[in-house]
């Protein structure tokens, strides 16, 4: 551990208050406000810094890590998801990785619920009708959606955000079901009124709503592939606020177009993380620009978590939000 002030590189501008504190505590440099760092800028950062603070737009892969200098000891990610970081290679090179869980949970679960409500109750269609000035007045058969209460929601990935979605869904009268890598303890299941499905296929086939809340890892890549998507009831909808790669987006697009799946609410997209143009043409898909955790309060708290992780490390302790390869 160096006795000098730690040199910290933050790849993108953060909230003012967080930046000020980082500058007070460490020798801190910030990337540009209006764009992610280039590959060359990232390589220079990992060569020189003790600590790197990236976000999900920065690809911290094996090739970048192979250019890391001896000093680089901590990657303190600004965000909960770490699928853009090669955590195993970092570990092998003795570089710790931390993230910002918990502070994104409630906001992300709120947006998940908002997507479920918007899909089942046809909010975008109603909004568009009003904006077109196309409304002919109330009618008994106009804009009929599906009742939320009583519907079955199947949550894939019952961690922090999955459980927060379960609490909201339950408050709206939905029946909560889940599939997770590990079954929850009985008292948590009881508290959440949630039924566990060991078989993801069986759960998917019986739900009215599927909510994706597991991380993107090699074992979840296209977990919702064409075969599984086909198991969904034709009137069911799927919502993804985790990472786009968990769903086979091309298969989903085809099935939304053919009506084999009634609707999708997507905050996240695969590959280059931009929405696929063929999805944008569909009127049964609600697309959001990766904004599920985007609240002013949340961003500040994410910054504070980054600060705590770096400060704890600087003081010679294990950062509280350490990510280990086995956890993923
Ligand atoms: N859209 C956004 O703005 C936004 C915001 C925050 C987080 N996220 C994403 O949400 C993800 C989940 O966040 P979290 O805080 O709830 O994480 P978490 O670690 O608390 O929960 C993830 C859950 O998924 C389960 N899981 C992992 N692999 C699985 C598999 N193969 N099959 C079934 N279950 C599996 C884990 O056991 C865990 O219970 C993050 O990794 C991130 O990618 C997105
Ligand atoms: O992983 C996360 O935290 C989100 O996707 C961005 O806040």
From TrEMBL:
Organism: Pseudooceanicola marinus
Entry-linked Gene3D superfamilies: NAD(P)-binding Rossmann-like Domain
Domain annotation D-isomer specific 2-hydroxyacid dehydrogenase catalytic: ranges: 9-323
Enzyme Commission identifier(s): 1.1.1.29
Assigned protein family: Belongs to the D-isomer specific 2-hydroxyacid dehydrogenase family.
Alphabetized InterPro entries for the sequence: D-isomer_2-hydroxyacid_DH, D-isomer_2_OHA_DH_cat_dom, D-isomer_DH_CS1, D-isomer_DH_NAD-bd, NAD(P)-bd_dom_sf
Molecular function as annotated in GO: glyoxylate reductase (NADPH) activity; hydroxypyruvate reductase (NADH) activity; NAD binding
Residues covered by the D-isomer specific 2-hydroxyacid dehydrogenase NAD-binding domain: 113-292
Listed name of the protein: Glycerate dehydrogenase
GO cellular component terms attached to this protein's record: cytosol
Keyword Oxidoreductase appears in the UniProt entry: yes
